[in-house]
Amino acid sequence: MQLTPDDIIVFTLAGWEVNATIVNTWIVMAVLVGISMLITRNLRPDVPPHRGRTALEVIVKLIQSQIEEVTRNSARHVMYFSGTLFLFIALSNLMLVVPGFSPPTSSLSTTAALALSVLVAVPVFGIASGGVGHYLKTFIEPSVLMLPFNIIGEFSRGISLAIRLYGNVMSGAVIAAILLTVAPFFFPVIMDMLGLLTGMIQAYIFAILATVYISSATAESDHPALKREDKS
Questions:
Q1: CA 155 to CA 158: how far, in whole Å?
Q2: How confident is the model at residue 29 (pLDDT cuts 50, 70, 90)?
């Protein structure tokens, strides 16, 4: 039983073993880019929207409304980041139904990379919103004695994000594999359906938590440049 796609070596390139995590990650990214290019190739005001464009607009509006509910503010500057995280994780988990495809989110290296991107994004958005001084000041609030605890809390966010997503996706794949040996024609279908549902929920939770962390870093100091961007 393969617990992680890291153990599946797809091919060797110049002595480097390329595993299924890397290959499947590029497949997911290629699918996302391909669909986006296909839908937006005739994106002009004088061209009536087709079904694909309408579906894409519905998805974008849903993501934007969810982020605005969390941040209680205009969400365009956060939507590009959190929306991309959601679409990548959601499509990775949805492609579980493709025979032979192992979601890259069932690899700890992928979830750690996603969590690391959130850890980098939080100070970037925080500094862009209020400046370096304001962001660093948040580490000594409400008292300077809280400095080590705030630093630990900042890193624990990334660790919890990575472990939560990895644990849920990987455990679902393991349970489905176990049930496949018990009842090969019945339980796997049910587990795949539950896997799709939990995969979408995990994508939602990951993107919302990333939005909450960024929102907390930009709170009380919305930069005029970001406000202008949101209004555009």
A1: 5
A2: very high
pTM of the model: 0.79
Residue 170, Cβ density class (10 Å: 0-12 exposed, 13-18 middle, ≥19 buried) = buried
Q: Which residues of 33-71 are buried (b: 16+ CB within 10 A; e: fewer)?
A: eeeeeebeeeeeeeeeeeeeeeebeeeeeebbebbbebb
Contact present, 85 and 206 (Cβ < 8 Å): yes
Label the pairing between strands 9-13 and 16-19.
antiparallel
What string of DSSP letters covers 140-163? G-S-GGGHHHHHHHHHHHHHHHHH
**162-208 tens-digit pLDDT:** 777 777 777 766 666 666 666 666 666 676 777 778 778 888 888 88
Taking the CA atoms of residue 129, residue 133, residue 135 and residue 137 in that order, the dihedral angle to the nearest 10 degrees is -140
Class of residue 192 by CB neighbours under 10 A (exposed 0-12, middle 13-18, buried 19+): middle
